[in-house]
Design brief:
Strand order of the largest sheet: 9-10-13-12-11-14
Largest sheet: 6 strands, antiparallel
Distance between the termini: 90 Å
Number of domains: 4
Shape: elongated
Order of helices and strands: HHHHHHHHHEEHEEHEEHEEHEEHHEEEE
Organism: Comamonas endophytica
Protein name: Polyamine export protein
Function: Involved in cadaverine and putrescine tolerance in stationary phase. May facilitate the efflux of both cadaverine and putrescine from the cytoplasm, reducing potentially toxic levels under certain stress conditions.
Family: Belongs to the UPF0053 family. PaeA subfamily.
Number of strands: 14
InterPro entries: CBS_dom (IPR000644), CBS_dom_sf (IPR046342), CNNM (IPR002550), FAD-bd_PCMH-like_sf (IPR036318), FAD-bd_PCMH_sub2 (IPR016169), Ion_transp-like_CBS (IPR044751), Transptr-assoc_dom (IPR005170)
């Protein structure tokens, strides 16, 4: 075989090996969701690719037969094509045996390098980048190869299946998609610019509802505007003017004895028509939904759906009221900073290195704002104020501070033992990692 014929043969073998490399990687890397979308759009090649993914045994058997046979042929052709020329060149400086060895090694190196670059690296990188497009193009020829080599494929496949059964190894890919998979895909889309960062965060917030308790979204006990059943008309009118809300709990004696709630629109209707407002009128009082404070936000949404309500009273294990939550509170958790239901933001960024944060801000929101993974003892509290109490081991006072994770958390204002405002500042490089509590 002449040099030109050998080169053409090697080029053809490299092309065939590249084809099998692309077929192998593209099938493994193809996303089933994308293939299903292509099938729904009318591309008939997508269905065979998905069937191959479900039962890839015969497919990969053909790939391995082709790649190994081509590698052997490439070595034989390359050695015969190049070794004599390299050997004669080396004989000018070395003995015949040494020249023959060097000629073989040189031929081996060149042929191996050509196959690595053009039959392996380039096609595999292309297949990873355009996996679905490549898989659709190669599926037809691969089906033809599977038919052509069916007897050999059957032999190898049955032997491999027997080994898999003997070793009790899985033979099918798990196609179940978890919430972690979806979050990973949305994060990748956001990094690639295909999905807006806020949209990605909203999707993450939806999946986070299952891990966040209702306490992270509720209005705290000391901020609840409520009525006592004995409140006279003028007190009711004054309160709805000073604290306008859509819903007010109605209590008997104190806040821990809730008998129901009153809708603001019913009160407004009576106020506008100059009718007297009496909370002893049972037609005004609606039955309140009572839920425990350990429920997750997902469970609260289920409760809202079951009873067709959008307002709930939150109680602790001692049946004491700790807060109230509305459907808007839950939705604001999902939407994040895309919408704002409150007049005042809980987290205000002052500059590049400092934030002003409300003490009742949920820990999850604080972590996201500060780009932290976690805070210590995070199973003992729900809010930033709770974090400071746990770290200081007492009720914080004004100017108390805690250093953690490269940040300084300083209490600016305390109102009746409740932390109102916390200044969070990024520490200098030499202070990062120092944990300190100052009284």
């Amino acid at each position: 075989m002449s040099v030109s014929q050998s080169l053409l043969t090697i080029a053809a073998l490299i092309a065939l090996s590249a084809f099998f490399s692309m077929a192998e990687i593209s099938l493994a890397a193809s996303r089933r969701l994308r293939l299903r979308q292509l099938a729904d759009e009318g591309d008939g090649r997508a269905e065979p690719v998905m069937r191959m993914q479900e039962q890839p045994g015969n497919y990969f058997t053909v790939v391995q037969i082709g790649q190994n046979a081509i590698a052997i042929l490439g070595g034989i052709v390359g050695e015969g094509a190049f070794s004599p020329y390299f050997t004669r060149a080396f004989e000018l400086w070395f003995t015949a045996s040494t020249a023959a060895t060097l000629g073989f090694l040189s031929s081996f190196f060149i042929i191996t390098s050509l196959f690595i670059v053009f039959a392996d690296l380039i096609p595999k990188r292309l297949s990873m980048a355009e996996s679905e497009a490549v898989a659709l193009r190669v599926v037809g020829p691969m089906q033809a190869c599977m038919t052509l080599f069916k007897p050999i494929v059957w032999l190898y496949s049955r032997g491999t299946d027997a080994l898999f059964r003997l070793l009790k190894l899985p033979t099918q890919r798990d196609e179940r998609i978890t919430s972690d998979d979806i979050l990973a895909m949305t994060e990748a889309s956001a990094r690639a610019g295909m999905l807006a960062q806020r949209e990605q965060q909203m999707i993450a917030n939806v999946f986070g509802l299952d891990s966040r308790t209702v306490a992270s979204a509720m209005t705290q006990r000391d901020r609840i505007a409520y009525f006592l059943r004995d409140d006279p008309d003028e007190v009711v009118r004054m309160r709805i003017a000073e604290e306008p809300f859509s819903t007010y709990p109605v209590c008997d004696g104190d806040i821990d004895h809730v008998i129901g709630y009153v809708d603001a629109k019913d009160l407004f209707q009576r106020a506008l028509t100059n009718q007297p407002i009496s909370l002893r009128d049972d037609t005004l009082i609606h039955k309140a939904l009572i839920v425990p404070d350990r429920l997750t936000l997902t469970e609260v949404l289920d409760q809202f759906r079951q009873v067709h309500e959008d307002f709930a009273i939150i109680v602790n294990e001692y049946s004491l009221v700790v807060g109230v939550v509305t459907l808007n509170d839950v939705m604001s958790t999902v939407m994040g900073d895309m919408v704002a239901f409150d007049d005042e933001e809980q987290i205000v960024r002052r500059d590049a290195n400092s934030w002003l944060i409300d003490g009742v801000t949920p820990v999850e929101d604080v972590l996201r704002a500060l780009s932290l993974d976690a805070l210590p003892h995070d199973d003992e509290y729900e809010t930033l104020g709770g974090f400071l109490m746990v770290m200081l081991r007492r009720v914080p006072r004004r100017t108390d501070s805690v250093n953690w994770g490269g940040y300084k958390f300083e209490v600016l204002d305390v109102d009746s033992y409740r932390i109102d405002q916390v200044m969070v500042s990024r520490l200098e490089a030499d202070a990062i990692g120092v944990q300190k509590a100052e009284g």
